[in-house]
Amino acid sequence: MTDLVITLSIVFVTAGILLLIGNRLNIPVVPLYIIAGVLAGQFIADETLIDLALWGIAFLVFVFGIRVNLDDLRLVLRDGEGAAATRIAVVAPVALTVGYVLGGLFGVEAQLRNAIYFGAAATLCSTLVGGHVRREETQLEITYGRLASAVHFFDDIVAIGVVLVLSAETLTDAQLVTSNLGFGVIFVLAGLFIYRHGFPLLLRAADGDEELVLMGSISLLIGFVAAAELAGVSIVVGAFAAGLAVREEGSETLGVRNGIRSITDFFAAIFFVTVGALVAVPTVEVLVLAGVLIVLVAVLNPLIHTFAFIYEGYDGRTAFLAGFSLNQVSEFALVIAIQAWLLGTIADTVFNGIILAAAVTMIFAAFTNQYKNRIYDVLFAPLLGNQTGYIDRHSDVTDGITDHIVVLGYGRHGRQIVEELKNLGCQYVVVENDPVRREDLQTNCENYVFGDVIADYPMELAELSDARLVVSTIDHQPVSESLLDRDFTGDLILKSDSSREASSFLDAGATFVAVADVLASDQLVETIERAVDTETERDSLGDNHPGTDVLSDD
Q1: How far is Cα 483 from Cα 479, in angstroms, rounded to an integer?
Q2: Could you tell me the fold of the domain covering 2-384?
Q3: Angle, CA of 236, 153 and 191, to the nearest 5°
Q4: Which of 267, 330, 373, 518 shows a CA-CA span of 20 to 30 A to 384?
Q5: Whole-prediction pTM value?
């Protein structure tokens, strides 16, 4: 216990110091965590690091499982599966061959098994870093976010199977391999069953008690992890199944979302720091193995995804953003490597190469995620910018529309604004990019564009230059900044969750910025003033109650 406390103290003190420096320099947190791990790793035993890494991965996989909404993903799941299957079919044979050849050159024992470890690390992908860096739910609700999540989900299912097979000390032990796979299937099916039938019962029993729902969710995690331990399979498999069992949608699960988000930061810090701490001083052999892995994972895999999505009909920007959200070594590849290290079946050269490649690709992913729009505009827009068929097929705007209002986002606020514009007889165009809302958009809106508001082409379809007002219901800084940078002379209404950010938008030319907390405070003051006024005013309060409309766009 003392060793664990000392280890955590070293981890968080080192990370805290670097985060203070990084905050000043606007550096993403993931590279700082990994660098902190490299520094702290000199004082922490490998066995302790392995345990912390596994628990960090288990919790983050649990969180990803919670965020997976199969009903929402179904619209893009086929395309995501197609891209993932294409990548596996292309990269897996190449990686296995390269791993086998390099293993022979470097004198690695158990050459084939180590080639499989290398191939798994090169083939499996993840959105783990992107999900932690972006933090905003907005990017999970647009096409490229859902595509990336669909690929990640498909990869995790494949990875669970690989983990279960490679957990066997001897791959020729058919009974043990079959038993492990059977347990994996049971865990996943149990998670899906609880999601459909068990978790709704918990919500009804909790009767609105958010703490009870949160504790029930954590209890599910602990129960599945304990069951995995008893079954002799990786705790990460149990954690993933537990995540599938927990619902995140609906107001009843607000406590789960808020509580899990806070705990996630703790375990994410542990995971990324331990990845850095596991990095050893590399030999030439390790550098070669890591270099090949980095090229395959950070360059080849994203390119295959990008062109696969274009083949499916998506526009160039969406294809690029989805593809390059998957440019890091998967957390499950680390689980496979760690399990093999515990079994003593992986060569030190291969293990250290995978860890080094994971650390480098996670740092690389953090920076590419931060500057992805700029990277696309400079390097890929000239090649992919003319791929607009997907947008054209799902958009409908009256020719020659002018003096209209452009509404960005068709969530709850967007729908309310559109209904009011209809009542006023105003012409409007809605721009939305969430596949889940596409059917409602086509059914209920006269003029609509289905595309990324940051891209030029969707805004050209919306006839932005001829609009008299743009109303953004999207609380996402890159979206607001892109609107402020456009050549637009009409009025611009933006949304923000920060008064400081709102002030900067006003200084940059916005007409009005809606800040949820400020709007809520102003409405509360107005309500109190009316409540202490005349009896007539008091009687009308119920008819004008704002409810929670100012709190979110969901």
Answers
A1: 6
A2: Na+/H+ antiporter like fold (1.20.1530)
A3: 55
A4: 330
A5: 0.81
